[in-house]
Amino acid sequence: MARVEFKNVTKRFGGTRALKDLTLTVEDGEFFVLLGRTGAGKTTALRSIAGLEKPEEGSVLIDGVDVGDWTAAERDVALVLQQYSLYPRLTVRGNLEFPLRPKGRRMSEDEIARRVERAANTLQITHLLDRKVERLSGGEMQRVSIGRAIVREPRVFLMDEPLSALDAKLRESLRVELKALHHELGATFLFVTHDQVEAMSMGDKIGVLRSGRLVQVGTPSDIYERPANTFVARSVGSPPMNLIEGTLSGSAANLNGISLPVAIGMAGGAGPLTFGVRPEAMVLEQGAPGEARVFDIEDQGVIKILSLDFGETRLHATVPAGTHVKRDEIVRFGWKPEKVLTFDRNTGRNLAFA
Amino acid sequence: MADVMTRLEPDTRAVARGLSDMTIRNLFIIPTIAFLIIFNVFPLLYSLWQSFTDFRASTTAPANWIGLANYRDLLGDEFIWRNFTITAKYVLISVSGQVVVGFGLAMLLNRAIPMKGLITTLLLLPMMLSMAVVGLFWKLLYDPSFGIINYFLGLGKFEWLADPQVALFAVAIVDIWMWSPFVMLLSLAGLSAVPKHLYEAAEIDRASSLYTFFRITLPLVAPILMIAIIFRTMEAFKTFDHAYILSSQPTTELIAIRLYKMAFLEWQTGMSSAFAYIVLIMVVAITNIYVKYLNRAKAR
Fold this sequence. Notes:
Strand content of chain A: 25-35%
Largest sheet of chain A: 6 strands, mixed
Number of strands of chain A: 20
Strand content of chain B: under 5%
CATH topology of the largest domain in chain A: Rossmann fold
Largest sheet of chain B: none
Helix content of chain A: 10-25%
Oligomer: heterodimer
Structural class of chain B: mainly alpha
Number of domains of chain B: 1
Largest interface: A-B, 26 and 18 residues
Structural class of chain A: alpha+beta
Number of helices of chain A: 9
Distance between the termini of chain B: 46 Å
Radius of gyration of chain A: 24 Å
CATH superfamily of chain B: MetI-like
Number of domains of chain A: 2
Strand order of the largest sheet of chain A: 6-7-8-3-9-10
């Protein structure tokens, strides 16, 4: 159990900087998700904690101790990778025992058996214990590699997109299991993913990375409701937040010739703005000020997701499944004024964050 | 669309190639088969027939069918068994030496080092030389009075090739020098195919480097190493060139040398054919044992 800190960590690969001045704290027992696209530096951050990468500047602290000079073995962290990385030619049991066997740990056979047993029970792989790892399915392999992390009882669990190689159904069930596991062990989890749904559904806290920089840290609802800039607004949520260019005059937003109300005391000013509104905060009703053409309808059962063409801008709106609309129909829309955010059009910054 | 393609295919194919299947058969396959029959199949069968006769290529006397007499004489000859023992010892020393040196070199090269390509190429050079040439210059290197090996090792006038106890080792050392690069090359291919993330996982799991080697590296490289061993064993079994050039000690008389003497110095053509067949059967048998192990290593 441990607290992990990054202090001004910078890491270069050749000419490109994978991490730029990253400062971040993961509290003890937290399920922290690093969210970012490919190349955002999230894997590098993870590997810096594991000791597989040495940052050029800054320091990585575990429980307040600078571990810069520690080897991967000394750091006592467990790493689960996307590629499973099970040890070949061994059984599942052999793989689970592997981290407990090396010399220097001097663990009793009883203790090894007890830990393997418990990990296998937790992950429901007891029936697979004597099977060779080559004969396992993808989901089973990933369970084993998570099991190999559990038996260690490490200070920190590091997971690098462990679910990405699995099919959708399995991914969902393992997602739930991982959360349950975290709850049960109470250990610190640092989970890396490019999948915002994964991040939102699993994380106690999310850190959004973009080209090696930390853009925003917060709880999933923080990130969803108060994105720090248009990048986060676009990255999180499916469909993403609607971003509409316009200006503010008094308590009304002027968008492409129409005027929609906004909350009183809205941060803004006279400059060019981008208004952000979540699809579920869009309202379709007769007599609303906006006018748009229905481009596509996605029926998801409980709700329908509409793609609307509003001038040059493509908007999304989620409406109850009972709503009757047709393709190419002209609909009228408004929004819930209290849900509207304003961003600086040039910097993309959320203006509510002064 | 798909139907049209199938219908058009035979014509377009012939036009595209400019050759019909028939022409290709006549051009490539028939000469190959003819070549194989004349130079491989016929001699194989002819020598099999000879092995049952008392034929001598040096005389005009007709060959007489003597049944299994050649085989009986050879298998009962204790000198021949001595040749086999020597060969077995030689194969063991030479192949194990090559595996240790070759695999060791591969381990050293399997990392980011400056001028890796150049070093690898230089290490591969011995393999590309002619075996007879290698034999000739190693004879100079081993020379007791002016050889550079004795000079560097400070062994004075040590007789590498004349000492009956040492000569076989000396011959095997040349083979190891020449063919370790071959094992190295195959091992290098095997080593670079081991996924890096396995080593990282082992590092995080605090496995010692020895443990990692025996648990990860060796099992994954074993099949390709086995292939190298099969090739080298078959080659070492029939070693002739450099062994013949280097030493004429009875303790270095490998079966290939004995066979050569029997066939072309003593002109016992029938007998030597029988001998060659015995060797062939042994090599096939040993190879089969290896292949069995190889398949088992792969299946695991």
